[in-house]
Amino acid sequence: MSLNKVMLIGNVGKDPEVRYLEGNSASGSNAKVATFPLATSERYKDRNGEQHENTEWHNIVVWRGNADVVERFVKKGTQLYIEGRIRTRQWTDQSGNKRYTTEIVADSLQLLGRRADNEGAQDIQAAPAPAQVQTAPKPVPQAPRPADTAAVSLDLPGDEGDDLPF
Fold this sequence. Notes:
The protein is mainly β. It has helices spanning about 65-75, 120-125; strands at about 5-10, 15-20, 30-45, 50-65, 80-90, 100-110.
């Protein structure tokens, strides 16, 4: 059994780069991919009580529908929660040297923080709702009350002047 799972909460380091890859000619669709750096920080005190902060930078890769969300709503400084997996790629550069890069391939993401921080996310809320036709409420028919039924009053301590039915 093996598991490759990453969960991160951090801030986007720069505006995402969005690209379209040529798709299968039969489907006619191009795959969208967005990439951006995400910073996660750890704060701690050392033995002398001094505050320290370590920031780790992660290369995030987001595909298809999630790339649409990133393109529309994510910008530098946006706080995100990301779930995904680690992937390391290898290639040979122009000088013939082997190069490696480690990325987080995001399976899901959520925008975090205040709405003011994510101005693009406000567009979702600000979109006008479809017009709705309002009708006057219909009167609810009342069942006739039997003449021999009397109202019951309970006088409990502390309920002076309270005429709630319960």
